[in-house]
Amino acid sequence: MTPSTPISRRQMLAGTAAALAGTAFLAGCAPTGPGSPGAQTLQFWHLLSGGDGVTMSGLLDTANAAQSAYRVRPTVLSWGTPYYTKLAMAAAGGRAPDVAIMHATRVAGYAPGGLLDPWDVDKLASLGVDESTFPAPIWEKGHAGGDLYSVALDAHPFVLMYNTDICDAAGVLDSDGNLTPATSPEEFLELSRAVAAESTGHGLSFGYLGDGAQMWRLFYTLYTQHGLTMETPEGGKSELDDDAAIESLTYMQTLLDGEIAAAQADYGTAVAEFATGNSGMLFTGVWELRTMQAAELPFNASRIPTLYGTDAVYADSHSFVLPHQTSPDEGKRELTYQFVADLLKGSFDWAEAGHIPAYLPVTESPDYADLVPQANYADAAQYVQYDPPAWFTGSGSNFQSEFGAAVQGVPLNGNDPAAAITDFRRRVDGLLAKPNPADPEGTFGS
Predict the structure, then answer these.
(1) Which residues form the signal peptide (predicted)?
(2) By residue range, what is the domain housing residue 305?
(3) Would you state the pLDDT for residue 444?
(4) Beta strand segments in 113-227, E
């Protein structure tokens, strides 16, 4: 089936099932910006709330005010399953918005069943948006089945934040006030213990209890630093290097020793420990940048150190997609391309949310180089590692929950890392044995 094929009731229900494979959004409409009375209205769905939502609202206001051809009307839905379910049903039922935001890691579950329309790369290129204007791994992630299905607004990687006062007292800052690079697991353990000695709490904050996503972000960062990726071939068996996987999980267990990091902590506890100045370092996503700025901490941030030889860091991307429309209005579709190009070119302010804008002319500008601490981890965009592509993977997915269920007992109860990896592989193979609900015949290809 090609993406332009009308969608049947069966496929509509399958698309809904694919959305439910992930995991959660409150519906609501954001205020619309100014626009010319003759402007075409573009419907835009997204899942950005809190500080991200405020920043996106500002970007939309700027885009609306800068021209008179279009006026973007955003609809904001709560993060998770309800958003992705509604997006699938809208695309399958002929009520799709003109453009929407998806996590890049969720596209693999939507493109095969025709729930998304591909982007015309030539049309994007005519607007200054092409392969040369994106980091290679981010541009490549937008493709499925040979076509471009998502255009990234950003990369939001897992990073290391650190309290500069505590780290200075521990003697682990260089002459420029940046954290001394650790290039091996042993060096990072030594650094972490030095920081712990100067902290009222722990040297490193990391929350994982009941949070498979958190465990997966750190695990996959360490695993891919071995120069490896996990493979999830449709209908086949998962491919995961046992030695590297066990080593990565064992190292996580070592960090969570009660001295370097708390042996038992959830996400909120870890963020609070760092935000109150009680720990020297924090493993977290860039989305916590505003939290730490609001706490008025003396802090900086960097890419997670490369401990196993290969530069790599777990990340996802908020990306623009074209939800399937059976008979798209060509005039509005042209304006949708223009809107996406305008937003990418004007995405400097998106960095205020902590995210790394994907459009290279923004991150390579002199103004961005002066943006601290964002500029200090901007190079992470060149080394991002996404979830292995499968219909059941991606941000908020059951895949990450299954990982947490399989491995949480390693740091929590001292369970055997090798047995945990075996359990995780068994869970993934069970999912791989099931067809993509959005493409049950496997007709899309890879």
Answers:
(1) 1-26
(2) 158-314+389-432
(3) 44
(4) 116-117, 143-144, 147-148, 151-152, 154-163, 204-205
pLDDT, tens digit, for every residue of 147-180? Answer: 999 999 999 999 999 999 999 999 999 999 999 9
Q: What's the gap between Cα 74 and its chain centre?
A: 21
**Rounded Cα distance, 64 and 55, in Å:** 14
294 token code pair: 């609001």
| Residue 234, domain member (yes or no) | yes
Neighbours of 367 (CB within 10 A): 10
Where do we find the tokens 């860091």? 313
Length of the chain (residues): 446
Number of domains in the chain: 2
What are the beta bridge partners of residue 294? none
Are 17 and 92 within 8 A, CB to CB?
Answer: no
If asked whether residues 420 and 292 sit together in one domain, one would say yes
The two structure tokens encoding residue 416 = 């055997």
Verify that 296 and 285 share a domain, yes or no: yes
78: left (phi over 0), alpha (psi -120 to 50) or beta: beta
Condensed to tens digits (0 to 9), the pLDDT of residues 215-254 reads 999 999 999 999 999 999 988 999 999 999 999 999 999 9
Does residue 444 sit within a domain? no
Residues 182 and 175: beta-carbon distance below 8 Å: no
Radius of gyration of the chain (CA): 22
Q: Which residue has the tokens 């804008």?
A: 357
How far apart are alpha carbons 345 and 362 in whole angstroms?
A: 7
Task: Kindly state whether residues 278 and 344 are assigned to the same domain.
Answer: no
In sign, the C-alpha dihedral spanning 337, 339, 342, 346 is negative
Pick the closest to residue 155 from 225, 105, 91 (CA basis).
Answer: 105
The answer to whether 155 and 380 are in contact (CB under 8 A) is yes
Q: How many CB atoms lie within 10 A of CB 164?
A: 17
Residues of the chain with pLDDT under 70: 1-37, 438-446
Going from the C-alpha of 386 to that of each of 121, 201, 273, 397, the distances in angstroms are 22, 32, 28, 13
Chain centre distance of CA 273: 24
Spatial separation of the C-alpha atoms in residues 15 and 71, rounded to whole Å? 29
Distance CA 381, CA 292 (A): 21
CB of 92 closer than 8 Å to CB of 438 = no
Helix (H) or strand (E) segment spanning residue 288:
none
SS3 state of residue 83? helix
Residue 314 three-state SS? strand
